[in-house]
Amino acid sequence: MGAIPTFDTAPLDGALAASILDWWHDAGVDLLVEDEPRDWRAPEPARAPALSPQHSPAAAPITAPVALLPDTLEAFLAWRLSDAAPEATWDGVSLTATGPADAALMVLVDCPDREDGEAGQILSGAPGRLFDRMLVAMGQSRETVHIASVCARRPIAGRTPAGLEARLAEIALHHVGLIAPRGLLLLGNAASRAVLGTELTDARGHSHVVDHKSGNCRAVATFHPRFLIEKPMAKAESWKDLQRVMGELNA
User: Fold this and answer.
1) Start and end of every Uracil-DNA glycosylase-like domain (predicted)?
2) What is the distance between the alpha carbons of residues 96 and 173, in angstroms, rounded to a whole number?
3) I need a surface site. Which of 43, 107, 125, 241 has the fewest CB within 10 A?
C-alpha cells in the first residue's frame, strides 16, 4: 500500500535478497514465523512491568567481564581490528570507529554496509550522503562526532548472529564509556537492541539514560539512513528524533 517496498523477485539474486533482508531488519522485523505454534485463543500472559525510558535496560550488568576489554580508546580500537575480536573470522574487512575521542555526540550503527569496506569508513555511499545531511541539520559533521558500529565487520545478510549479540552489546557499551559523550544517537534496530535492550519501534519517541563505565549519557534511537532511503516518508519522524538529540546536547 505504499509503505512496504515491492521487488521483482524473479530472478532474485543474492545481493537483492540480502538488500530485502536488510530493509526488514532495519524496520525491526527479526523473523517471518515463530519457532513454536501459537494458541491464539489462549489468555494473554501477564506482562512484566514496563521499564521507564529514564532507566534503560543497558544499565543492567552483563555477564561477560568488561574488565577484559582494553581500558584506553587507542588500545580498544586496535583490539577491535585484531584477531581477538568476535568478528575476526567473518568475511570482509574490519572498519574502525572515526571521530574525536572527546566528541559530545557519538553515533552507533549496526554494522558496515557492503560499500563501506571499499570506502574505508562506516556510513558511505548513498546512506553516508544522507547521514552527512542529517549531521548538518543538527549542526554537526563527521569531524565533530564519534562514529562506531556494533559489528566491526558486516555479518551475513547484515544480521548480528544471535550467539554474539550479548558480547557485541557489551563491547559497544564499553566503547560508549571510553568516549563518554553527552549524547548517543543509535541508528537502526540492532544498535537500539545492543545499547537499550529494546526494539527500535519501542525505543523511539523519547530519550533514554544509558549508564556506562564513565557515568551516563542520553541516548536517542532512530532509523538507519539506508531505511530512510527506502522509505522517505519516515524522514519526518527521524527529524523529530534528531531534534531530540539536539535538545539533549544543548541541555
Assistant:
1) 96-243
2) 16
3) 43
Positive/negative CA dihedral, 235, 239, 240, 242 = positive
Which pLDDT score, from 0 to 100, does residue 62 have? 38
Look at the chain and report how many structural domains it folds into: 1
Query: How many beta carbons lie within 10 A of that of residue 145, not counting itself?
Result: 21
Identify the band that residue 156 occupies on the pLDDT scale cut at 50, 70 and 90. Answer: confident
Please report the pLDDT score of residue 65 as a whole number: 47
pTM: 0.75
33, HSE (Cβ side, Cα atoms, 13 Å): 4
Average pLDDT on 8-14 reads: 49
Q: What is the grid cell recorded at 132?
A: 552527512
Whether pLDDT at 53 is above 80: no
Per the structure, the complete domain to which residue 224 belongs is given by 66-250
- With both helix axes pointing from N to C terminus, report the angle between 235-250 and 125-137 in degrees, rounded to the nearest 10: 50
Long-range contacts of 165-171 (CB under 8 A, 24+ apart): 165/193, 165/194, 166/62, 166/63, 166/64, 167/64, 167/86, 168/86, 168/194, 169/58, 169/62, 169/193, 169/194, 169/195, 169/197, 170/62, 170/64, 170/66, 170/69, 171/69, 171/80, 171/86
Q: What is the CATH number of the domain that holds 222?
A: 3.40.470.10
pLDDT surpasses 50 at 48: no
Residue 56 lies in a domain: no
**When comparing pLDDT for 20 and 225, which is higher?**
225
Residue 17's pLDDT is 55
Give dist(CA 106, CA 179) in Å, integer: 8
Taking a C-beta distance cutoff of 8 angstroms, is the pair 66, 174 a contact? yes
